[in-house]
Amino acid sequence: MVNALVTGRGAAIGVRLRTRVEVSSEAKEGWVNIRASGSAGDLLGAVYDEFLKKTKVQAFDIRALITTDLPGGMGMKSSSSVANALILALADAYNLTMSHMDVLSINTSASIRAGVSYTGALDDAAACLLGGVTVTDNRLGLILKRYSAKPEKAIFLIPRGLHRPDVTKKLSSDMRCSLVTAHRLALIGRYHEALNINGAVYAYAYGYPNQPTLEAWRLGASAAGITGNGPAYAALAENGVLEELAKKWSAHGKLIITETRNSEEDSNHGSSV
Fold first, then answer.
1. C-alpha angle 195/70/15, rounded to 5°?
2. pLDDT at 273
3. Which domain holds residue 124?
4. DSSP string, the chain
């Protein structure tokens, strides 16, 4: 909803898409091996390493089976969701009870170490884990505010032939100011406007087409724009608008239709077998 890459402050909203991770100490066909690691790009290894540091338990060879509704590399927070689910699965395997903040602390540290996030993506991890709207200062590791989102349909567009550019590109001071404004709006409950501003800023900065967003606004979506830093688009809408928007957006790529979520149900699940 408000990407924290530029300012270090972000906001995210939970939706009803699931990620599930199962872990086992036994070798299983199709399961991935996980070893504690600090290597760049190895999110699963970094999560296990941070988990071991936090809990002081003994390391084992771990295998994991990951299933998720979220496509990777689209700005839809698949990394945050998978990391949460893996932490919960490891806690289950070791018969440990972990607080929400313990889970989020491991997630954010591992995300930075693995290089999948510059800020730790606390906003994304918290929204994935807890649901609702989460507004954070990722630089300080603080959840500034949490509140319930309006029950609405959420539609995501995975655009054909569109890829994320270099996200280290510098944004102008005007763009940075716009993202600060979006964050402040999210803090006071005006998250629809925050999503609109964030989407417009990143679309302009990275050259994403405006047509999907304009189509959503014209049809009456309550919010629409690039999700995160893209390239996927997101819109929030009532049922009547959703049906018309789905017809329009289907011409641009694949659609994922779900709804906002204000609880921990149907989010990140982890288990051991």
1. 45
2. 39
3. 13-146+263-272
4. -B--TTTSEEEEE-BS--EEEEEESS--TTPEEE-----TT-HHHHHHHHHHHHH-PPP--EEEEEEESSPTTSSS-HHHHHHHHHHHHHHHHTT----HHHHHHHHHHHHHHHTS-SS--HHHHHHHHH-SEEEEETTTTEEEEEEPPP--EEEEEEETT-----TTPPPPHHHHHHHHHHHHHHHTT-HHHHHHHHHHHHHHHHT--SHHHHHHHHHT-SEEEE-TTSS-EEEEE-HHHHHHHHHHHTTTEEEEEEEB--SSTTSEEEEE-
Asked if 25 and 135 sit in the same domain, the reply is yes
Residues 210, 267 within the same domain: no
CATH number of the domain to which 220 belongs: 3.30.70.890
35 with 114, same domain: the answer is: yes
Dihedral sign from CA coordinates of 270, 2, 248, 219: positive
Domain count, the chain: 2
Which residues, 6+ apart, have CB-to-CB distance to 222 below 8 Å?
A: 150, 152, 192, 236, 237, 238
- pTM of the full structure: 0.92
Token duo for residue 210: 């405006």
Average confidence score pLDDT of the chain:
92
Q: Does 3 reside within a domain?
A: no
- Asked if residue 73 is part of any domain, the answer here is yes
Model pLDDT for residues 119-177, shown as the tens digit of each residue: 999 999 999 999 999 999 999 999 999 999 999 999 999 999 888 776 666 677 788 89
Is residue 36, in this structure, part of any structural domain at all? yes
Residues 6+ apart with CB under 8 A from 193: 182, 185, 223
237 shares a domain with 134: no
